[in-house]
Amino acid sequence: MFTTKLRRIIRWGMINFWRSGTVSLSSVLVLTITLFVIGSLVLSSALLHSALEQIKSKVDVNVYFKIDAPEAAILNVQKYLASLPEVQSIDYVSREKALAAFKERHVGDTAVMNALDEIGDNPLGASLNIKAKDPSQYEGIAKILQPDASLTTAASPVDTSIIYRVNYYKNKVVIERLNKIITSTRQLGFAVSILLATIAVLVTYNTIRLTIYIAKEEIAVMKLVGASNNYVRGPFMFEGVIYGALASVLVMALLFAISLWLGGVTENFFSGMNLYLYFKQNALQIFVIILATGTVLGSFSSYLAVRRYLSV
């Protein structure tokens, strides 16, 4: 019995779809536009994430130590910071490495080399390059490293008096801007998705209303012979599923073509992020997201239209 009803629901849903061809086409196109923008947001989010990760990888906090700071004390600071959950990695640059890097940067600069020879000793102190898991966590790390802060614990005594300077506040503006960009991008993407989904529901909702009006005689007959409410709603909800499925296939074709066209451009611009390769590797996941979104939007708007405008 259930299988028979399901076959009839699918059959009448397809009949409704083909009978109201122009109306159905308009719904598919509107859903295609909506799902295309949502799919584009998925791809653009991947590109933006890649770009932000590159920027984040270049942002860090540098802790410079006094020249006479004992190496053991510096390593204590490194050990303490490495134990913090917000710290992703720490690179220790010894005085010797700092001097070697300085000389490499100023190769050919006779004045600088002569000045180093006159000093006769290494004028540079050791340093720690700290990368946090999230840019918003740098401020908390910097506060811990202030000279007047106490890092002393029973397990790991650390002397902050050996710290000469922390460059967080020099990079603070860049870090804060990065945080704002990340937050604003997420909020904008969410807002645009909600807006487009609402528009799609409204348009499909009105389209189903027209379909219901066209099929009002069949609906009346179905009610006269004792059809249940769910049986009456079924074909229209399946029709909405068809809208979403067809729109999803069209969107995937468009996204494939665009990602293929922009693949080389994005790889050059985003330092290795090839949009086509990303789409190819994640095509199944993207299709599932788009298909699920399209079928839910189509069937949900159909359900609302039937519930509101049918006396069932």
Please provide a written account of the structure.
The chain is of the alpha+beta class and 312 residues long. It has helices spanning 2-19, 21-58, 71-82, 95-105, 110-119, 138-144, 168-214, 216-224, 229-269, 275-281, 283-309, and strands spanning 61-65, 87-93, 127-132, 163-166. The protein has two domains: 2-55 and 177-309, no CATH class; 59-170, Alpha-Beta Plaits (2-Layer Sandwich), CATH 3.30.70. α7 packs across α11 (283-309) and α9 runs antiparallel to α10 (275-281). The model is unreliable at 149-157 (pLDDT under 50).
| Tally of DSSP β-strands | 4
The backbone outline, from C-alpha atoms, is elongated
- Give the end-to-end Cα distance, rounded to a whole number of Å: 22 Å
Low-confidence residue ranges: 149-157
Task: Determine the mean pLDDT.
Answer: 76
Q: Helix-strand pattern, N to C? A: HHEHEHHEHEHHHHH
Q: Helix share of residues? A: over 70%
From the alpha-carbon coordinates, what is the Rg to the nearest angstrom? 31 Å
Structural class comes to alpha+beta
Taking the sheet with the most strands, its summary is: 4 strands, antiparallel
Strand content: 5-15%
Task: Give the helix tally.
Answer: 11
Number of domains: 2
Task: Summarize this structure briefly.
The chain has 312 residues and is α+β, with helices and mostly antiparallel strands. The chain has eleven helices and four strands; from the N terminus they run H-H-E-H-E-H-H-E-H-E-H-H-H-H-H.
